[in-house]
Amino acid sequence: MSVSNPTLITFVIYIAAMVLIGFMAYRSTNNLSDYILGGRSLGSVVTALSAGASDMSGWLLMGLPGAIYMSGLSESWIAIGLIVGAYLNWLFVAGRLRVQTEHNGDALTLPDYFSSRFEDKSGLLRIISAVVILVFFTIYCASGIVAGARLFESTFGMSYETALWAGAAATIAYTFVGGFLAVSWTDTVQATLMIFALILTPIIVLLATGGVDTTFLAIEAKNPDNFNMLKNTTFIGIISLMGWGLGYFGQPHILARFMAADSVKSIAKARRISMTWMILCLGGTVAVGFFGIAYFSAHPEVAGPVTENHERVFIELAKLLFNPWIAGVLLSAILAAVMSTLSCQLLVCSSALTEDFYKTFLRKNASQLELVWVGRLMVLVVALIAIAMAANPNNRVLGLVSYAWAGFGAAFGPVVLISVIWKGMTRNGALAGILVGATTVIVWKHFELLGLYEIIPGFIFASLAIYFVSKMGAPTAGMVERFDAAEKDYNLNK
Question: Are 92 and 316 in contact (CB under 8 A)?
Fold first, then answer.
């Protein structure tokens, strides 16, 4: 690995820029609210792009292109499900959650919101939801670290162990220093880089393979079923892939962006920006994997790394088809995807440990400065655990992501969605929803029942548990009053 390597130089410049943004955000971080939610100051553009970038992770440029490369368009049902789920999340949850968290104790985290929304004096709801966040996010963080390690390993010829630490170090640095503002500002830069890479790369691959007609003929010659959206699929298989969209309602790192928006008025514009970005990025991702079939069929002599690990299809195309300087920028997009998601996951875990355990149960009167530094320490702790989990070089990014995504989608999705649209929901209903959702995912995944993605039964059973358990009791007058006030505020300002 030469220091003059253009790709290495590009990476170093990019990482330095992200850390610099972290130090800029450090100057604006004065209290725990600033560190966790940026003082609720995000405008529509930053809200939109940071929500998108934090969502997509290394899965966007590694897991999904690899799946399309291996199986053809039948894997694109995931993308369709995600687009539908994200839009519904923006439409029904984003604005309402923004006002509900403000009206319920100016909540900074999801456990904080649940505790205030349902007047949980016991602390049980806060503890259980914080534990769910820590368990599933540590798995999610591990997926980001695996993706970063794969990138450094294949780009610079590092050992997997060295790449593991190299990929995680920069993200830990700027998250540690700058908190939520650093994460959101860097996410905006990273989202821009990701969409640039995912629009440019498929166009160049298409040109390199001789244009649209030639490319499609080569893909068809490889396997005509590559064009078949129903190839090797079943009804349950398609429903499972589409079911990924349900996960959006419960992802704490995405919901935090809604909570941090400067006003409800920003949400509608942010929705339009975010959905445009998302559709273009997912379309580009599918195209990269699909056109890659044609390219590597025509150039089997360079297909070895992709044959060995199909999740490297974007990496290899960037290295083969572009000037090293441009390749460095494109590969930085993978680093951007990894860093954007990993950073906000670390921050949400840190927030849960600091706000929902340390401040609530250990140091109720802790100063704001103390809480910020405890938050920073928790970033390091969670990161080290995730690195340890990611140490197995046989890990696959998509597998780790799918489990964590299902866990959050089933445990939190129904609780968040129903809590912002139904005033009749109770504290026991919320508890039942979280426990039933999380337990269903774990059990269903373990036994692999019916071949159905575990988020679907988890979401359904949790929703039923919320409804029936809530019907056994009734919300307090205070809960109803706050709900009505928040809904009125939302309708006046949306």
Answer: no
| Cβ contact 52:281 at 8 Å | yes
Q: Helices (H), strands (E): how many in the chain?
A: 22, 0
| Pair 40, 259: CB distance under 8 Å | yes
What is the spatial distance between Cα 217 and Cα 212, in angstroms, rounded to a whole number?
9
- The CA distance from 76 to 139, in Å, is 24
| Tokens coding 137 | 């996010």
CB-based contact 355:109 (threshold 8 Å):
yes
SS (H, E, C) 274-312: HHHHHHHHHHHHHHHHHHHHHHHHHCHHHCHHHHHCHHH
Instruction: Provide long-range contacts, Cβ within 8 A and 24+ apart, for 116-122.
Output: 117/419, 117/430, 117/479, 117/482, 118/419, 118/425, 118/426, 118/427, 118/430, 118/475, 118/479, 119/427, 119/476, 119/478, 119/479, 120/427
Q: Cβ(101)–Cβ(259) under 8 Å?
A: yes
What residue type is assigned to position 261 of the chain? A
Place of tokens 């929705």: 271
Q: Which of 413, 429, 491, 424 is nearest to 466 (CA)?
A: 429
pLDDT tens per residue across span 160-211: 888 888 878 877 776 666 666 667 777 788 788 888 889 999 999 999 999 9
Specify the pTM.
0.86
CA 395 to chain CA centroid, nearest Å: 18
Q: Are 73 and 283 in contact (CB under 8 A)?
A: no
Mind listing the pLDDT tens digit for each residue in 326-364?
A: 888 888 877 777 776 777 777 777 877 787 778 877 788
